[in-house]
Amino acid sequence: MRRVRLLPLHVLVLTSLLPLGREALPVVINTWPFRNASAAAWSVLQSGGSVLDAVEEGCARCEIEQCDGSVGYGGSPDETGETTLDAMIMNGDTMEVGAVADLRRIKNAIGVARAVMERTDHTLLVGESASVFAENMGFIAEDLTTNKSVNIFSQWLKGNCQPNYHKNVFPDPSKSCGPYKPRVTLEQRRRQDNMLSHDTIGMIAIDQDGHVAAGTSTNGLTHKIPGRVGDSPIVGAGAYADSSAGAAAATGDGDVMMRFLPSYLAVELMRAGADPSAACKAAISRIKRHHSEFFGAIICANTTGHYAAACNKAPGLSQFRYMVSNSESNTPLLKTVDCF
Fold first, then answer.
1. Is residue 287 part of a domain?
2. Active-site position among 83, 200, 218, 303
3. Could you report the per-residue pLDDT of 159-207, keeping only the tens digit for each?
4. What is the pTM of this model?
5. Which CATH number fits the domain that encloses residue 108?
6. Is 251 annotated as a binding-site member?
7. Which residue in 21, 50, 206, 234 has the fewest CB atoms around it within 10 Å?
8. In a domain, 182, yes or no
9. Active site (annotated) includes residue 222
């Protein structure tokens, strides 16, 4: 009997050539069914704005509307009850990036990220220093706390600070929540996964001439340890854009996903000839080999306007929904992909 030799995944991906023909350009794609964000970005492109303008406006709309409570002010309070924001934006023509993490007092995180890109020689500013920079650039300082975030925090305290993201430690016996001390024996952290606890908007915009931009905005993980930064503002993890290949943006469990730079991997696979569907699946598969039940998804688009998404089948996530606007629809359309 003749033995059949199976090709490794990366070979299969690289031999998956782009389909013939050209999809509709321009195009806007964003994670989750955030229709108003997609419509805002699409309107910018239709009125002659740049892809950077489109990404900024789309993400800013979610910041204003507090999309699913996972973007913008008043959501995901940390262990001290404070809401902090992460965001990034990337110019696929110049490969410039601006990002902020652990941003306080400023509601327009994606706007501050763009200011970092266009008004400094830096890529990423964090914490209080990022907030001071924003104020110096004219952004208005405001309280990011709302009645909703205060209630989330209060209920967490009443529940003895569970879930939390500490592991191998135990709290001071006289208190229900920290300070924490090292535990001698290994013990997994007590935590209840909530799909809305680690979420974001990731957005891709490609104009008629093939200029590409991508961006993200999030308020991070509910009950996170103060100072925690996820994948969203990390270049190549939360998003990546290259006008010679395409763009990708990820969403999900940022503490896991950022270790694998899925957005960068997907774009590089598209550069090598993979279609967006194969690139997205390969990026998810790489993470899945190490974390079989991680919560996450990714959207991908190449410069011809072809797009796709992929997600890991995990508790609470069997399908992933995302939005697409292009010249064929001229309005945001909800798309769904089955997780694998």
1. yes
2. 200
3. 989 889 998 888 876 677 888 888 755 444 444 444 444 579 999 999 9
4. 0.90
5. 3.60.20.30
6. yes
7. 21
8. no
9. no
